[in-house]
Amino acid sequence: MTGTLARVDQDFPALAQTIHGQYPLVYLDNAATTFKARPVIAALNRYYSQESANIHRGVHTLSQLATERYEAARATVQTFIGAEQVEDIIFTSGTTAAINMVAQGFVRKRLSPGDEILITEMEHHSNIVPWQMLREQTGAQLKVAPINDLGEVRLDAFAEMLSPRTKMVSIGYVSNALGTINPVKQMVALAHRIGAPVLVDAAQAVATIPVNVTDLDCDFLAFSGHKIFGPTGTGVLYGKQAILEQMDPVFGGGDMILSVTFEKTVYNHIPYRFEPGTPHIAGVIGLGAAIDYVTRIGMETIAAHDRKLARLAAERLSTIPGVRLIGEAADKTSIASFVLEHAHPHDIGTILDNHGVAIRAGHHCAQPVMQHFGVEATARASFSLYNTERDIDRLMEAVLKVKEVFV
Fold it and tell me: May I ask the CATH class of domain 8-30+298-406?
């Protein structure tokens, strides 16, 4: 059932702040991290104040209750992303950890010198550096599919770069620097034609558009809890069961084993073999609460809202002389990135903060994207379900204040 965004701001206590003792907060840094809703905070408080016990190994009541809530969150994630079975869901510390687990536990042993890994020019550093490390370890090659000047992946070039040497494809669903929504389903199909498995980095997608792994047919998908109103230090790695069976654990320790002797260790069943040690129990429970929250509202409702605000912000920013929009793809969501003549993005961010408007200024851990557009950094306004058109009014007022200083 789809809900409504009316009065949703009341669910996020962090919004009720005054900045510098004068300006009501306008938070437009949602691509970096999102605020936490009251149900998420309540779930964390309940665990730490009443149910704080370890999971899976205890026979007492609190351990059993914590285990039930932790595993209920796994089932919530399964339903949310359309996975076929609950065992497809592995909890991690975030997208970065998930990508590294796939790189080292699945891809590394499949590579020989001259084999290829294919990514795109718009990737976040977390979907570049692990593959560069793998290149140094194995002698494989890292191929990069280019983007055009609208900030869209050149699908023709991507298809041409696939070959029998391609052993892994890893692509972002939504660009954190541009807001571009990539044609991931089509890219997955192209990769599967030559037998290459595909990892989808959904960190920026999961809170702004519906994500369904069965429809995408991706082999892996990763996202971070804090991008979807959940706690930091939580994340998910989805994998098809047949592929996960081929993946080695990257970390060893407690709870990821069935038995241990000094001669041999027998690993636990999937997904537990990939979750060693005591996890972020409260965080996972909070992530489940966050997903329940957005599910009640409806991802289609959220997606339409975020697209509308990002489009309106870009249209209004483009009317300011000296503003250059960075990333104008036909299919975009939630993000409006720009530069302003004579003003460094860090100065833009500082002056906006002085007027109570929080944006992100920098390279956004996507320096190759900045290099493509010939800039060192951008100012990035990113929108979420609790933002309104009034926030865009405040953004515009603050950017005009920047012009008064620098132009």
Answer: alpha beta
